Amino acid sequence: MPLEIVTVPCLADNYAFLVHSSTTGETALIDAPEAGPILDELSRHDWHLSEIWLTHHHWDHVDACGEIQDATGAKVVGAAADAHRLPPLNTRLRAGQNYRFANEDVVVLDVPGHTVGHIAFHLPQSKAVFTGDSLMALGCGRLMEGSPEQMWGSLSRLAALPTETTVYSGHEYTKTNARFALTIEPDNPDLQSRARQTEAARAAGNPTVPSLLKLELATNPFLRAKLPSVKSALGMEDSSDVDVFAEIRRRKDSF
Questions:
Q1: Which of 83-92, 95-104, 220-229 comes out lowest in average pLDDT?
Q2: Number of domains in the chain
Q3: What is the pLDDT of residues 130-166, one digit of tens each?
């Protein structure tokens, strides 16, 4: 049976995700922003939480970890390289390591940029990737610790996944991201359509996360920095992909 994935809105604009196997009964939580909504969702489904997977150390992704662990007994999984600033880890994962959950492989991806120890969790069989604050819907995370080179490498790594992969990212920023993206590619018809759909979804109170990777490739300016049309729009025809990405990130930071 395929894994069931539930999106859990938390705080003002965070998302956590529950991944459940009806075959094994195991449930994993990706990131722990707020205990109440997550515990309520577990109770509603009558699921027992087995594991908590952490993408990075920022407070709005880890602060509820202890409370949820106390309530459920779940073990905590995160990056070995960031163990010194994550909640206490039961399992320390290295980038590139394969991890097993509910009879599926979970590939641990190194995605620095937003933070230097950021990881993502790719489930190839379920065609899902949990990206935290690296690749986001129509955007990417601010470079809080890493360099443009690191983030561009991370985004390129994620962009190389199968296009039918569903991207589960950590925040509801899509409406603002769409407005910014239109300043980079105002004539992109796929982006225009997505912007309209995003406005309608948010007006109805519906989430815009997750999204398909193929949609991100068609509309997300941070993934499209290598395209000649984008370079031309920015007057950077002869610039490297990294330099174009850095310029787009700089513009978004002041948008």
A1: 95-104
A2: 1
A3: 999 999 999 999 999 999 999 999 999 999 999 999 9
State the CATH number of the domain containing residue 113. Answer: 3.60.15.10
Beta-strand pair 104-110/98-101: antiparallel
Tell me which residue range forms the domain holding 185.
4-253
128-132/98-101 β-pairing: unpaired
Block residue for tokens 């604050």: 133
pTM (2 d.p.): 0.97
Spatial separation of the C-alpha atoms in residues 76 and 41, rounded to whole Å: 19
Q: What's the count of helices (H) and strands (E) in the chain, helices before strands?
A: 9, 14
Q: What are phi and psi of 239, to 5 degrees?
A: -90, 160
Query: How buried is residue 226: exposed, middle or buried, by Cβ count under 10 Å (0-12/13-18/19+)?
Result: middle
CB 18 within 8 A of CB 210: no
Tens-digit pLDDT profile for residues 228-254: 999 999 999 999 999 999 999 999 999
